[in-house]
Amino acid sequence: MRENLPPSGEIKSCIAADPPLKPRSFNGIVWWIRRHTSVEFSPRQIQSDIQEAALVVLLSGTIQPMPDDYRQLTLPDLEPMAQVLAQSFSEDPLVSFILPNAKTRVHTVGKFFRAMGRLNIRAGSAFGTGYPLAGVAVWSFPNKSSSSASLGDLTAFLPVLFSSYVIGVRRARAILNQIEANHKKHALESHFYLDNLGVIEAARGKGLSSKLIRPFLQMADEQKVVAYTDTVTGSNVPVYEHFGFECVERNLVEGTGITVYALRRPVHS
Question: Which pTM was predicted?
């Protein structure tokens, strides 16, 4: 939540809750995407489709009406979504660890957010606020049915596979494993998961993060399920606590200088 945080950054860690990929490994990235989204597909079939340059078939989802404060994002929002998240995460400790070259960081992580955002949008988990788009949140919901992935969804990851991002993710293996372990430990039951949250610098301090958090916490309370998130930015913790999250664990990952914070919000009546 950058808008209410010090200049060092708002945003919770991207890529966070999943094990890293093997560099340039198609099966590795397929497995990672399956874990990170509710999209299902056959790796063997998709790999065959890519090799044969098969026809891309896009499957559209049903967009639910949203309040004026936020909206569910659609594929035309993909590029603005990627830019908002790339800019918001440019100083994130985990992204900086994965991509130490500050000059190319926004461009490179933008490739990831462009590819991942496509899956998030098609899974119905991407939300935004502002015209033009100024804030983005990615929420995972309990008991959400899966959707099918197209060839286009997977080929969108090719620029990521052949970038320094994949090598950096491998270097960050210990951090990502710790985030994954905390998630499993503290959110075993059905839960809402705030995966990513970003607000561009020019729009901070205007309550956009609240618009992207409070409605979903209300949904969680109505469904009587907990909410969970994580961050590698210590200054984020009190802001999440403002929304009712409790820091249930913190871990300094040896040899990285990065501390992982696990935050869980109980059901509020």
Answer: 0.76
Question: Please, what is the Cα angle at 149 between 71 and 200, to 5 degrees?
Answer: 35
3 state DSSP class of 259: strand
Q: Is the peptide bond before 132 cis (omega within 30 degrees of 0)?
A: yes
* β-bridge pairing 226-231 and 191-199: parallel
pLDDT at residue 100 is higher than 70:
yes
186-202 residue pLDDT tens: 999 999 999 999 999 99
Alpha-carbon distance of 240 to 56, in angstroms, equals 40
Q: Is 260 helix (H, G, I), strand (E, B) or coil?
A: strand
Helix 164-171 and helix 173-186: axis angle, to 10°?
Answer: 60
d(CA 213, CA 194): 8
